[in-house]
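All the exercises in this workshop are built on plain-text protein records. Instead of coordinates, the fold is spelled out as a row of discrete tokens. Once this layout is familiar, the rest of the handout is easier to follow. The record below serves as our worked example for the rest of this section.
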Amino acid sequence: MALGGDLQVDAELSHKAVEEKIAKPFRRSVAEAALGIIRIISSNTSFNMARAVRSSPGKSSTLCSCSSATTALSASVLYLIGMKAMVLGAHLQAEIRSNFSDD
């Protein structure tokens, strides 16, 4: 698997590392451990993004999200700083419509 085309990730080795270093010591499944990792990273990133937006006093800010990964973080930032809306890229709007439509 490639992340952005630059970094090759060995899925088998990644699974083994999460299992040995996190899941087993904390008596969790690999899936639970991976979700915990994602939650910690997301929380820290959202907090830092919110702090950066708040540090611009007197300036209005628009939060834009251009990928699926940043949309989840952006939603956390919206909550943390009390913003009401964000701009989504067109492909995300189409993806949301197709995933949540009644068709």
